[in-house]
Amino acid sequence: MENRKTRLEWVKKVCSKVTIPFAVGGGISSTNDMKDLFDLGVSKVSINTAAVKNPDLIKEASKKFGKGKLVVAIDGRKNAPGSGLPRLEVVIKSGSESTGMDIVTWAKKVEKLGAGEILLTSKDADGTKEGYDLEMTKAVAEAVSIPVTASGGAGKLQHLYEAVTIGKASAVLAASIFHFGEISIPEAKRYLKEKGIPVRI
User: Fold this and answer.
1) What are phi and psi of 183, to 5 degrees?
2) Is 57 in contact with 49 (CB distance < 8 Å)?
3) Helix 103-113 and helix 56-65: axis angle, to 10°?
């Protein structure tokens, strides 16, 4: 409970400082958790493990708050042929737990249940800086009509471009390249704009 209170105070502080849409994920397991965050000014919430464990939560949240406020995060990994698991599999608990679910099947289901968008992270590519998993991104993006944000693996500007053009992602997420100042956000926006990708400046 104390941890939850601390987290809400942290979110409140961020909301008071940022002027861009702010999404929060992690540890959200009920519509009450979501309401607390929306009451603080959060733009969107993102659920992952809780959605896999209780798919009805997607439907309930979408109905209560509107699909535009609900992101379903999907973590995926590639399995070797003959492993008895789907080639592109959904994993939960930050990638530590197998579900045996096919990623495209799950993406279609979350769309049907009322998710407004999907945040797709390749646990194999995450942190490598060797590029997004374009096969996984494309498979999911082409299977659904809601926006898909590619995450995991960005290391250079070209990777951002490839996620949109080859991976068919609607948006891209990058963390370490920005955190460590390897690439600036204005630089990334300029690059994509020059390549003909629509960006908000």
Assistant:
1) -135, 140
2) no
3) 40
- Phi/psi region, residue 38 (left: phi>0; alpha: psi -120 to 50; beta: rest), is alpha
**Mean pLDDT to the nearest integer, 120-132:** 96
Q: Quick one: what percent of the chain has pLDDT higher than 70?
A: 99
Residue 103 near residue 75, CB atoms below 8 Å: no
| pLDDT of 189 over the 90 cut | yes
Domains of the chain: 43-194 (3.20.20.70)
Q: Work out the average pLDDT over 4-25.
A: 91
